[in-house]
């Protein structure tokens, strides 16, 4: 029994009938072996997953808001807050003890 060529999985980077089309997906996005449509990973959006999440957003298709305090940015893939010096905690709302600074207040 033979299956039509478009039903078979194509090698990475190819799609379509007889896998003759080149995928246009960027930034590690998955390419559908039939249509060539891109499925973006966290932190990316756009037809070809070419656009990073705008500031203040993260996740799949950048559809989640950063939950950080005082307009602090977050990692576009994970949503982890980028705390400025002197602040720490999940949302960067905690103040470091006197004489310490940086991530988790480890700097002295």
TrEMBL record:
PROSITE patterns: EGF_1, EGF_3
Keyword Cell membrane: no
Any one GO molecular function term: scavenger receptor activity
Disulfide topology: 40-49
UniProt keywords, alphabetically: Disulfide bond, EGF-like domain, Repeat, Signal
Ranges in coiled-coil conformation: none
Domain (EGF-like) ranges: 20-50
Origin superkingdom: Eukaryota
Name assigned to this protein: Multiple epidermal growth factor-like domains protein 6
Originating organism: Araneus ventricosus (Orbweaver spider)
Organism ancestry: Eukaryota, Metazoa, Ecdysozoa, Arthropoda, Chelicerata
Underlying gene: MEGF6_7
């Amino acid at each position: 029994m033979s299956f039509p060529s478009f039903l078979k999985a194509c090698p990475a980077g190819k799609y379509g009938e007889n896998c003759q089309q080149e995928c246009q997906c960027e930034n590690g996005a998955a390419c559908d072996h039939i249509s060539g449509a891109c499925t973006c990973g966290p932190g990316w959006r756009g037809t070809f997953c070419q656009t990073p999440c705008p500031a203040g957003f993260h996740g799949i298709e950048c559809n989640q808001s950063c939950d950080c305090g005082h307009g602090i940015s977050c990692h576009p893939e994970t949503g982890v807050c980028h705390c400025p010096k002197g602040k720490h905690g999940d949302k960067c709302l905690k103040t470091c003890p006197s004489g310490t600074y940086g991530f988790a207040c480890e700097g002295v």
